[in-house]
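Please fill in the sequence for the structure shown.

STRUCTURE ENCODING:
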């Protein structure tokens, strides 16, 4: 394989005939799109979107493997970095920025990296996606380490910026995943694991913000959600590490505590206050019937997982009860033994 750093932009552009990509082909069902009524347009868009769900379903084994890697990375203090250009880069950022308020993690845990920098989220920076070296540089600026997982997103599957980033990540020993919407995509060969979401031609030719983008977002939803479940950010199906950053989320935290333990709003507020606003800690405190410090220690020993903390505490209490029973039994037997000797 040629060294990407030695390839010119012209060579990269000529290396793939984009007209042969399924995402660039014309959709035969929409050849008269400009003559359709609004209802006809949205009806066919809705029908085409059904293909997205099936494309994602076909990739579930690869998505599962990705989640195993990302969960292990987060548990080891690593990060998830989404890297993309244009729509794909924006989708990565959208998923990343939702993780702190939803799961209570810092903004450095799930990171969206887009060609052209954060400004490119709202205004494209021309030519940024054509530079493999820029992909490398951006990951260097994020101080990538081998604990991190890098997920490259490219609907076309040939974006030089993403390829450059994936190559740098592999050099460092990172786990790497590519997500594209074309079969046998060039980015697939650059990643340790390839997810190819074959959504087919778009309703509007080449507009990969449609089915391709929807498929990418669905997969990122799965990766971030399942990874956060894996590191204990969820109890049952409740987001117990939600940050109370506004009035709506304060009420949501109270509702979560009430739902989890079956208490009143007043009791939920009281315990949230005692727990310093930490929803998961308040729930654990109430479920275990202990003070904040004890609940915090139980969570620490259980890796932040509420059910594991409860199970560990119950097991310890059972063991303590067993020891107490043994001691009481010995105490009860002793007088009898002495009496027998006296008789």
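FILLED IN BY: designer on duty
SEQUENCE:
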């Amino acid at each position: 394989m040629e060294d990407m750093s030695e390839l010119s932009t012209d060579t990269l552009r000529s290396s793939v005939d984009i007209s042969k990509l399924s995402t660039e082909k014309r959709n035969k069902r929409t050849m008269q799109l400009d003559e359709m009524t609004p209802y006809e347009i949205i009806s066919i868009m809705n029908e085409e979107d059904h293909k997205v769900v099936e494309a994602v379903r076909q990739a579930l084994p690869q998505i599962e493997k990705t989640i195993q890697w990302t969960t292990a990375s987060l548990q080891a203090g690593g990060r998830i970095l989404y890297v993309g250009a244009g729509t794909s880069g924006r989708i990565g950022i959208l998923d990343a920025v939702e993780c702190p308020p939803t799961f209570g993690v810092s903004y450095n845990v799930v990171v969206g990296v887009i060609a052209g920098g954060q400004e490119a989220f709202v205004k494209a920076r021309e030519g940024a996606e054509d530079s493999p070296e820029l992909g490398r540089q951006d990951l260097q600026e994020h101080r990538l380490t081998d604990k991190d997982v890098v997920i490259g997103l490219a609907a076309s599957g040939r974006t030089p910026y993403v390829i450059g980033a994936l190559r740098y990540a592999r050099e460092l020993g990172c786990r790497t995943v590519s997500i594209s919407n074309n079969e046998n995509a060039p980015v697939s060969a650059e990643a340790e694991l390839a997810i190819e979401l074959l959504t087919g031609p778009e309703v509007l030719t080449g507009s990969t913000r449609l089915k391709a983008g929807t498929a990418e977002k669905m997969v990122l939803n799965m990766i971030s959600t399942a990874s956060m479940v894996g590191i204990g950010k969820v109890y049952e199906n409740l987001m117990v590490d939600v940050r109370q950053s506004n009035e709506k989320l304060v009420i949501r935290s109270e509702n979560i505590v009430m739902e989890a333990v079956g208490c009143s709003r007043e009791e939920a507020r009281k315990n949230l206050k005692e727990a310093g606003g930490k929803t998961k800690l308040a729930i654990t405190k109430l479920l275990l019937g202990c003070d904040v410090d004890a609940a915090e220690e139980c969570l620490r020993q259980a890796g932040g997982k509420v059910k594991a903390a409860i199970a560990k505490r119950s097991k310890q209490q059972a063991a303590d009860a067993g020891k107490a029973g043994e001691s009481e039994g010995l105490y009860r037997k002793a007088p009898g033994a002495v009496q027998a000797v006296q008789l």
